[in-house]
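Risk register update: the risk of archive-format incompatibility is retired. Evidence:
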Amino acid sequence: MAIKLETGLDLAHNSTLRAEVANLLRKQILDGEIPSGTRLIETEIASQLGVSRMPVREALRMLESEGLINSVPRKGLIVAEYTEEDIREYYTIREALEVCAIKIVIDKITKDEIHELECYCRRAEDARLAGDRDEVCKWTGRFNDRLYDCCGMPRLKEQIKNTHKYLRTFRFTSFKEPSRTAQALREHEEILRLVAEKDYEGAARATSVHLRDSMEMYLKLWRQRKDPQN
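Archived output:
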């Protein structure tokens, strides 16, 4: 297993070494760079990062408490493997939260915020046309984060943010399918159009459709990875 050192991490100036290591590992797990089922060996990670074992051990404990890694008897610490039930549960929670939030967004969003979100949609589409999946993920992530910032409810936004964190690896995998990428971006544009038109029911329905389509595509790719013969 190779842990890649990256200089572009968005770390707070006062973050501890433990937090930096945890952020690095978390990002690579959620991006799929460290696959499910990978064994994480404390001494190897410390050696590759050039740090002592203590911050690595503490970082791994943090990730274990978040459910990203599991302690398996006779195997050690393993990157968590999701079941189909886990995936459906995460998407169900996300759908319930976002359908609730989108109606609140409609009441509070400003014209400037709508224009900003339209810009994110255009940048994501430009990235798709350029074949840059990382940029597509970046701009769709910003779209989702900014859209629900507009609800003005920090606790609701925090709950949505938590689901986005754990679904990040699902979204990245889904965007390996070009047709899904194009469809997802169209769905974002449609949700934003309905928000601008203050169509409460239409926006809620479009949000549900978008998330269910995303889930079904991810499950299709997940099953193919689990059983390549089918």
